């Protein structure tokens, strides 16, 4: 379909405010009489709390209160379960253990909160925290994903007789049968380690209980204000109309700002209600390392069965997923790994066993990619190894196995993270793959450039990895669109913004229908007072789920506009056109009425609104897809390794992406750029180092390295469009896509750059040090 | 993490053992020592200020001595906690008679560190702890030499304690000379070894 506004490179309407410091973040919220909170967090990863003495802190001038679990009495309760285990699978083990607002008896990860100080300033609160005396009995920490399952292991949760958080098997076809027919069976073990999301803005909360109005307002840097509102109301004994949660501008979410019900999110509103004053807390960077969720640690044992021609006959994998001390987010991440370990390949036989374990480490919830980068890493690494063993072209082995375009919708016969059948709704993989090779100059590089550079003593390598991403899952989102008497349009939706450009791309959808300028649409997202229903911004679903709700509401308003104009202009609707904020009779442009005038007439002060109609030019609509929309893409790069320092230089980086209908290519490219930068971090810089006691050893941005502008290559993006068949706009998500294939691309390119070492990379993240160690090991062997 | 190292003292085992028992000498050798006391049952408590890069603050620790075999060896267990984090560890101290060359002191143990000290100070610990140890050994060597000289001359030994300024200068020097990423064999954790030395003196 041809659009006039959708799909255009419209500059972001939110940028002037953001760039001139006029956008509200939680840190900007300042209220009369506001107090400040600071937290006493455990240094130990695993320890019994023997005693807590808060009296010295209470004596600090300026301290208003100090609270521990005991003070919460019956209000003390673990966080709500967010995602239950899949109901459709048999023999699922799922032990739910959720984070607590304040530690009662035993610390289960470093950074857990023992006490909170409320004072006149953050300075005083921080100083007072240091006066609190807590006696701990340190316990050995559970850290290793495999040892923690051995009999006699120390337990994270004493009320469970195991560290097993979950176990499930998904099965498709008959792997063992396929294995018997295979010409080649490859077995490998992979260790994928943890990283942080490290959003630029840390978390932050201001809670304000208004006693006289009996109303709670919470500003929260969250991705999901509506579930937070619902949860707070339930926990605090309020009805949900007494609670407003506002997620204003948020400086990056990337998953961990999901509706986790972080301890702080529960504790601040609770204290505000006790004291009847507003309370503020902004997470500092060090707290962020200990208190905000992380992801990605998994150990995989993988088997790939192939024919000698290179066809995949089956995949079998067993993996352990580390959920940290608690598992509020259920099985989302490991289910995503399961779904993506087949990539975009036509795999008939698949056996996948997941074991989730509790450890004394920071809680795990999805981080941009959410288990998908691990899945893609596994299958792509295995294919690289298979190509080598079968002496096949590594690009050809992928082409051989792609799901063909006429096989969609392709049913995988397992369930996905949303517990729906894993159905790849659409795809066209080979053209995307070929385009990537062409952009990269693959043939030329392999045949001419690489040999020439190698002869000149340079270690250059190339990597190309296709991937898929299941996006746009339900349950639903909604939107409200209204024409104002000014002729401008206001809109609201429940999915908050953390940089996704909602105010621009959703405005484009509305402008398309209502014939107004994008700048004349003002959208509020993430304020429960503006939109009541919904879930939040996660799982690459905004453009699909909220986008289609916005589209439906805008279409309905268009319908109302034309209907009313038809009456007033005494012309059939089909003869009317809606452009430049005005409804005109197509062949008599002087016969017209503006949207503003129509809005006034739709809300009259005299006369009667006809029965069966509603006042105003307004509509609220919802969209809930039965299953997701499958985006896909291919990333490729050429890199050079300095064989002495192991530092790398990315000479070329290209991304072919297909997210169906694009709302705004500028925004899509921004998402790809951001995703790739996270992916580069995941691949070569960012690793959270825990020691054997569950201590994080690089809890600062001086030691935990995030790629900066100097590590970022120029990224060339090419768009393809295979529209999603199950939503009207044809959109697919793209928020996580950029991060997904990068570690696999790196591994392939590094191996290709260092042919003399016969290197086989079976882990991520790497680093210059780690690459040096790996090469050293290979040298010792040979 | 493993704590390991050795130092050759120019004196007999008896002399070295005595040196370590001299509270005044040892407190002077270790900057930041606030107080220490014997609380019975081979257990000692002490308070000291530490600074590892951006991490600074007061530490209070408890130490237990066991397996004492004068003048050869003993085992000690430390458990310290403070605003900058915590440490726990245990190790063996061995004094080997080297005849004319003197006494070789060897220490080997395991130390756990946590909190801010681990999370933020990690990459500085190596350098800072080495500086402290070197400086402490330097001071102890001087005292030992002075005692030997004074013994021969039949006078009372005099020595000057190293100041905080000397310590800061030593740390700066070591920081400049040792690249952070370079892992040196015989690495010692600052606080572990500082407390360990501190507690040896109060034996």
Could you name the key traits of this structure?
heterodimer, A: 782 residues, alpha+beta, Aldehyde Oxidoreductase, domain 4, Aldehyde Oxidoreductase, domain 3, 4 domains, seven-stranded mixed β-sheet, 19 helices, globular, B: 203 residues, Alpha-D-Glucose-1,6-Bisphosphate, Chain A, domain 4, seven-stranded antiparallel β-sheet, 7 strands
Helix/strand layout:
The complex is a heterodimer of chains A (782) and B (203).
Chain A: H1 15-19, E1 35-41, E2 47-53, H2 55-58, E3 63-68, H3 69-72, E4 93-94, E5 106-107, E6 113-119, H4 122-129, E7 133-138, E8 164-172, H5 175-181, E9 184-192, E10 204-210, E11 215-220, H6 225-236, E12 243-246, H7 263-275, E13 279-282, H8 285-291, E14 298-306, E15 312-322, H9 332-340, E16 350-357, H10 372-390, H11 394-401, E17 410-415, E18 421-424, H12 429-440, H13 442-455, E19 459-471, E20 477-483, E21 489-493, H14 502-514, E22 521-525, H15 542-569, E23 576-579, E24 582-585, E25 588-594, H16 595-601, E26 618-623, E27 629-641, E28 648-658, H17 665-685, E29 715-720, H18 742-753, E30 763-764, H19 768-781
Parallel strand pairs in A: 1-13, 9-30, 11-12, 15-16, 21-22, 28-29
Antiparallel strand pairs in A: 1-6, 2-5, 2-7, 3-6, 4-8, 8-16, 9-14, 10-11, 10-13, 14-15, 17-18, 19-27, 20-21, 20-26, 23-24, 24-25, 27-28
Helix pairs in contact in A: 6-7, 9-10, 10-18, 14-15, 17-18
Chain B: E1 2-9, H1 13-21, H2 23-29, E2 33-40, E3 43-52, E4 55-69, E5 73-82, E6 85-97, E7 103-114, H3 116-119, H4 122-153, H5 164-177, H6 190-201
Antiparallel strand pairs in B: 1-7, 2-3, 3-4, 4-5, 5-6, 6-7
Helix pairs in contact in B: 1-6, 2-4, 2-6, 4-5, 4-6
């Amino acid at each position: 379909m041809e659009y006039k506004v959708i799909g255009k490179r419209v500059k972001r309407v939110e940028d002037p405010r953001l760039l001139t410091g006029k956008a509200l973040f939680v840190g900007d919220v300042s209220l009369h009489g506001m107090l400040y909170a600071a937290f006493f967090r455990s240094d130990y990863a695993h320890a019994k709390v023997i005693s807590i003495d808060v009296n010295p802190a209470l004596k600090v001038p300026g301290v208003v209160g100090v609270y521990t679990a005991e003070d919460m009495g019956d209000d003390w309760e673990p966080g709500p379960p967010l995602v239950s285990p899949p109901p459709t699978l048999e023999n699922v083990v799922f032990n739910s253990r959720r984070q607590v607002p304040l530690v009662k008896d035993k610390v289960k990860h470093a950074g857990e909160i023992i006490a909170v100080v409320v004072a006149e300033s953050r300075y005083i609160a921080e100083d007072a925290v240091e006066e609190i005396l807590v006696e701990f009995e340190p316990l050995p920490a559970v850290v290793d994903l495999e040892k923690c399952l051995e009999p006699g292991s120390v337990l994270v949760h004493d009320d469970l007789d195991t560290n097993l958080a979950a176990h499930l098997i998904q099965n498709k076809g008959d792997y063992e049968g396929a294995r018997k027919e295979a010409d080649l069976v490859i077995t490998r073990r992979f260790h994928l380690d943890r990283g942080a999301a490290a959003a630029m803005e840390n978390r932050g909360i201001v809670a304000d209980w208004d006693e006289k109005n009996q109303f709670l307002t919470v500003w929260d840097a969250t991705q999901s204000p509506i579930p937070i509102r619902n949860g707070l109301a339930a926990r605090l004994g309020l009805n949900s109309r007494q609670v407003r949660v506002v997620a204003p501008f948020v400086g990056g979410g990337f998953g961990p700002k999901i509706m986790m019900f972080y301890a702080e999110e529960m504790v601040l509103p609770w204290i505000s209600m006790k004291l009847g004053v507003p309370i503020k807390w902004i997470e500092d960077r060090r707290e962020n390392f200990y208190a905000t969720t992380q992801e990605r640690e998994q150990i995989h044992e993988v088997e790939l069965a192939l024919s000698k021609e290179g066809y995949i006959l089956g995949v079998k994998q067993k993996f352990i997923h580390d959920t940290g001390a608690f598992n509020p987010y259920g099985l989302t991440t490991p289910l995503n790994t399961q779904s993506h370990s087949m990539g975009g390949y036509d795999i008939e036989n698949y056996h996948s066993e997941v074991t989730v374990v509790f450890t004394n480490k920071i809680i795990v919830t999805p981080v941009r990619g959410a288990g998908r980068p691990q899945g893609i890493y596994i299958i792509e690494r295995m294919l690289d190894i298979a190509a080598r063993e079968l002496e096949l072209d590594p690009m050809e082995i992928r082409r051989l196995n792609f799901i063909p375009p006429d096989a969609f919708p392709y049913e995988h016969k397992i369930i996905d993270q949303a517990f729906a059948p894993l159905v790849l709704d659409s795809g066209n993989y080979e053209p995307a793959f070929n385009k990537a090779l062409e952009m990269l100059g693959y043939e030329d590089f392999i045949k001419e450039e690489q040999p020439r550079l190698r002869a000149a003593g340079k270690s250059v390598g190339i990597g190309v990895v296709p991937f898929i991403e299941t996006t746009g899952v339900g349950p639903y989102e909604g939107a409200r669109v209204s024409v104002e008497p000014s002729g401008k349009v206001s809109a609201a939706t429940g999915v908050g913004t953390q940089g996704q450009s909602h105010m621009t791309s959703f405005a484009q959808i509305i402008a398309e229908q209502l014939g107004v300028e994008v700048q004349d649409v003002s959208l509020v997202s993430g304020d429960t007072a503006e939109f009541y229903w919904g879930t939040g911004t996660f799982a690459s679903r905004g453009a699909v789920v909220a986008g289609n709700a916005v589209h439906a509401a805008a279409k309905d308003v268009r319908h109302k506009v034309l209907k009313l104009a038809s009456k007033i202009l005494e012309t059939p609707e089909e003869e009317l056109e809606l452009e430049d904020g005005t409804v005109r009779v197509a062949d008599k442009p002087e016969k017209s009425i503006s949207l503003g005038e129509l809005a006034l007439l739709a809300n009259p002060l005299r006369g009667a609104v006809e029965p069966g109609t509603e006042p105003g030019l307004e509509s609220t609509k919802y969209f809930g897809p039965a299953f997701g929309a499958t985006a896909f893409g291919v990333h490729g790069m050429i890199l050079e390794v300095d064989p002495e320092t192991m530092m790398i230089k990315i000479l070329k980086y290209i991304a072919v992406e297909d997210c169906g209908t694009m709302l705004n290519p500028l925004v899509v490219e921004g998402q790809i750029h951001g995703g790739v930068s996270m992916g580069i971090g995941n691949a070569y810089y960012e690793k959270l180092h825990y020691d054997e006691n569950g201590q994080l050893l690089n809890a600062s941005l001086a030691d935990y390295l995030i790629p900066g502008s100097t590590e970022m290559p120029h990224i060339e993006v090419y768009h393809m469009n295979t529209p999603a068949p199950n939503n009207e706009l044809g959109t697919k998500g793209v928020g996580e896509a950029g991060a997904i294939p990068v570690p696999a691309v790196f591994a392939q390119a590094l191996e290709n750059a260092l042919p003399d070492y016969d290197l086989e990379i079976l882990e991520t993240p790497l680093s210059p040090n780690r690459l040096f160690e790996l090469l050293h090991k290979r040298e010792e062997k040979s | 993490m493993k704590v390991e190292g050795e130092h050759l003292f120019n004196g007999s085992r008896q002399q070295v053992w005595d040196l370590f028992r001299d509270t005044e000498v040892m407190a002077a050798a270790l900057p930041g020592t606030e107080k220490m006391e014997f609380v019975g049952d081979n257990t000692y408590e002490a308070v000291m200020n530490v600074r590892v890069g951006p991490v600074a603050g007061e530490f209070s620790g408890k130490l237990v001595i066991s397996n004492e075999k004068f003048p050869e060896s003993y085992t000690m267990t430390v458990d310290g906690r403070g605003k900058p984090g915590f440490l726990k560890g245990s190790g063996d101290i061995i004094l080997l008679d080297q005849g004319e060359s003197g006494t070789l002191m060897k220490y080997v143990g395991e130390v756990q560190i946590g909190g801010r000290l681990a999370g933020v100070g990690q990459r500085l610990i190596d350098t800072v702890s080495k500086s402290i140890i070197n400086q402490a050994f330097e001071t102890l060597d001087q005292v030992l030499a002075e005692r030997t000289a004074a013994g021969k001359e039949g006078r009372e030994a005099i020595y000057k304690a190293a100041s905080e300024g000397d310590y800061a200068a030593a740390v700066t020097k070591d920081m400049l000379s040792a690249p952070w990423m370079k892992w040196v064999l015989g690495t010692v954790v600052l606080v572990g070894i500082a407390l360990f030395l501190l507690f040896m003196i109060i034996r």
